[in-house]
Amino acid sequence: xxxxxxxxxxxxxxxxxxxxxxxxxxxxxxxxxxxxxxxxxxxxxxxxxxxxxxxxxxxxxxxxxxxxxxxxxxxxxxxxxxxxxxxxxxxxxxxxxxxxxxxxxxxxxxxxxxxxxxxxxxxxxxxxxxxxxxxxxxxxxxxxxxxxxxxxxxxxxxxxxxxxxxxxxxxxxxxxxxxxxxxxxxxxxxxxxxxxxxxxxxxxxxxxxxxxxxxxxxxxxxxxxxxxxxxxxxxx
Length: 236
Ligand SMILES: Nc1ncnc2c1ncn2[C@@H]1O[C@H](COP(=O)(O)OP(=O)(O)O)[C@@H](O)[C@H]1O
Ligand SMILES: [Mg+2]
Prior knowledge:
binds magnesium ion, 47% helix
């Protein structure tokens, strides 16, 4: 087996990277072997979630490790890719060389975005980074994931429409709405699939299916050894 590699990437904090990473990992792990790599030192909220979970449950098929440097991340992916079906990488809320390396190693970058004008002010710069990464990783697919969506809120709908017109990045059809279950379940080391909100659970299962569909045809990513790719990572 060669793991399909998914990064959860966004320069803003609080957009739901760790929440989506944890929830997708749990649903994927129901039928597959999943490794999560926490690349968000010093916050490590994914690791904190995993440790709460670890104390409560016997886990199968869901493992966690962390990386603090590009070299560590590259070595971890290389070492583990034959042993897992999926590797999910939780990124930091800024742009650094670890985030850049993550994008060059991935089949798919999921970019969580909340549909509010303030949240997308800094998005254009991040989009540029992703387009630059695509030049060095031709296997990279990128999908926006609308998160914390509030239904029937006009301004949210307008932001989603604006991004779909102006951005070259496509969004997954499946949106994640604002639900307390995402907060509460994470704090207890659970996914929403293990919680008491069937709407949230259904959202995450649909998202998981959409992610699997995108990854179905993805071949292994070969990290470019070109000087340009190395410089892209080193830019920090
Ligand atoms: N769909 C959602 N509905 C409600 N709260 C959410 C949702 N997604 C994330 N959150 C909450 O938003 C906060 C930030 O999420 P987090 O995953 O830590 O973001 P990031 O990793 O991007 O910094 C957390 O308190 C989390 O529980
Ligand atoms: Mg996080």
